[in-house]
Amino acid sequence: MNFLAHIYLSGKDENLILGNFIADMVKGRQIEKYSPEVVKGIRLHRKIDEFTDSHPFVTRSKDRIREKYRHYSGVVVDMYYDHFLASSWDDYCNEPLETFVQNAYNVLLKNYIMLPSRAKFILPIMIGSNWLVNYADLKSLQRHMEGMSRRTSFNSGMEEAVTDLKKHYNEFHRDFVEFFPELVSFSRKYVEKINKFNLPT
Rounded to whole angstroms, how far apart are CA atoms 14 and 85? Predict the structure, then answer.
């Protein structure tokens, strides 16, 4: 899953939001710099990734494009799924997407000094282009994919990912709709176990 889903799955706990956001940018013993509460968010992120990467519906999505995108197929599917979450947001949350996202941005800005250097670089760009809201729009998603393609070390082909999404839109959407409630349930149980609070409804 990508940024929007990870933040959504953190619920209202600011430490979980922060940890979940920075998790991919915290390597090795760097985790020791953070409070136990933020570490819970980092570990939640990693549990979400483990659950997602091994799930048969996600595998089905990746298999549909694996030959073309190879090891980038997971990255592409993560973006597809954030698109579906953003575009069908009202099915998963009573709070408007714009409000939810602004609150998340505020949490991250409030804790800016604690962010890893890469997160400090990414966050202003994310907010300036409003990535989390604009994932819902295919034209914006196309621009984001093109930017990701330019930053990859190898020829990823991700600039063509939105075209492939359009070709198989219903199939990818079906995979997401079948998968995401299971991920929400998994995350809720994990979060309740470590911190006893409810996900947003």
Answer: 21
**Of 10, 86, 74, the residue nearest 45 (C-alpha):** 10
Whether 200 maps to a domain, the answer reads no
**Given this model, what pLDDT does residue 63 score?**
95
Instruction: Say if 201 falls within a structural domain.
Output: no
One-letter amino acid at 111 equals N
Overall domain count for the chain: 1
Among left, alpha and beta (phi > 0; psi -120 to 50; other), residue 35 is beta
Burial class (CB in 10 A: 0-12, 13-18, 19+), 201: exposed
Q: Tens digits of per-residue pLDDT, 63-86? A: 999 989 888 899 999 999 999 999
Q: Enter the tokens of residue 199.
A: 């996900």
Instruction: Supply the range of the domain harboring residue 71.
Output: 3-195
Whether 8 is covered by a domain: the verdict is: yes
Q: If residue 13 lies in a helix (H) or strand (E), which one and from where to where?
A: none
Alpha carbon distance 149, 151 (integer Å): 5
